[in-house]
Amino acid sequence: MVLRMRTKVKALPGCPMSKCMALLSGLWTPELLWSLSNGPRRFSELRRDIPAISAKVLTSRLRDLEHRGVLGRSVMPTSPPTVEYDLTPLGRELLPAIKAIVDVGSRLLLRDLAIPSPQAVDAPGPGHLDPEHLDPGHLEQ
Fold it and tell me: Over the stretch 69-83, which tens digit does the pLDDT of each residue have?
């Protein structure tokens, strides 16, 4: 039997999936979009939402996503100045894809833990999602 190496298939320049995945594939990007899905958040709130992310990486990701048009940055005229991040229309367009990933992940967690329903999950653990994020109507507002 002869083993052949598979050749890597390059995405076509106009491939819609590649275009979308280029936005979503950055480190911590799906988590940031999910965290911002309920509305504007400050830097410190995002750090609390995603405890494993360092301040340096969070700053870098926020700048990159702002540059790509996925999120906006607003400086509030307070003393001291407050900065909030929010999803742009493009960022909100990506939420159904993130929601689908969260739904599959929730089912996988339940299956792996042999828990019959989401209501049986009592104690938040690493990667805990707020109950409103598990609500199927969350994105239909």
Answer: 999 999 999 888 899
What are phi and psi for residue 131, nearest 5 degrees? -55, -35
Entry pTM: 0.69
Please give the single-letter amino acid code of residue 85: Y
From residue 98, alpha-carbon distances to 21, 58, 62, 77 in Å are 11, 19, 17, 32
Residue 85, C-beta contacts closer than 8 angstroms, at least 6 positions apart:
36, 40, 41, 42, 43, 46, 62, 66, 71, 72, 73, 74
Q: Which domains does the chain have, with CATH numbers?
A: 26-113+129-134 (1.10.10.10)
